[in-house]
Amino acid sequence: MKELLQTASENVSFLLVSLLVFAALVAVAKLAERLVHADLHRPTQSRYIAFVAMSAALGGILMYFEIPLFFAPSFYELDLSEIPVLICSFYLGPVAGVITEFLKVVIKLFLKGTSTAFVGDFANFVVGCTFILPATIFYHIRKTRKMAVIGMVVGTVVMAICGSLFNALYLLPTFSVLYGMPLDAIVGMGQAVNPAIDSVTMLVLLAVVPFNILKGAVVSVVTFALYKRTERALSRAMLPQQRPARHGTVS
User: Fold this and answer.
1) β-bridge mates for residue 77, sequence order
2) Quick one: which of 247, 1, 249 has its CA closest to 110?
3) Cα(122)–Cα(125) distance, rounded to whole angstroms?
4) Which residues pair with 78 in a beta bridge?
5) If both were cysteines, with which of 54, 105, 142, 152 could 220 make a disulfide (CB 3.0 to 4.6 Å apart)?
6) Is residue 192 within 8 Å of 73, Cβ to Cβ?
7) Pairing of strands 67-68, 77-78
8) φ, ψ at 248 (rounded to 5°)
9) pLDDT digits (tens, 9 = 90+) for 178-226
10) CA 204 to chain centre
11) Ramachandran class of 28: left when φ > 0, alpha when ψ lies in -120 to 50, beta otherwise
């Protein structure tokens, strides 16, 4: 915890930018809910908070389990933390998804700290949202299996494009500055895995793009298999029970 606070104090401006981005993404999610007139589940506030917190906690735990990939350097590892976030988003809507994505990363930071001066954690949040938001918006336009699949495919494509541009234009240069590592050294880590990686552009094309496509595909397949069963259980547990109607006349 002490080390985490020290790192935070050294990167205050970056954390403020992260909070502003979070606020902007919440605003986008709220606008999306209004525009698509999302047919959202309406649990009580306490149950809404409980499900978001539970999903975020599960996502934070899943961030512990990272899978190294043969085609990418060690700072790109696959985790499945987007699965509970996407299930939460499908059930409660885009705003809940963005909040859950953010809290997931915060929980991970408290449990594990940061090894990337917060850059990797910020990347996980922003790139995760580029997948969660399109997938959820499409699903809430019409809640069918077909729209869920379309949404997840669109989300994967958006994540691959936005995640790649975000890495190339902002994240990798920012990581280089905050972590004190020249960009050439970062490219060199990619080249050690794949000799064809000889620039930031090739690092993005040969590592970041396939990484995001693979992550989107895996998360989509698992969520598709789990969501309907989960939704039925959640509907019984989360939605307020209707009271039986009283018989008799009203005076």
Assistant:
1) 68
2) 1
3) 5
4) 67
5) 152
6) yes
7) antiparallel
8) 120, 175
9) 777 888 999 999 999 999 999 999 999 999 999 999 999 999 999 998 8
10) 19
11) alpha
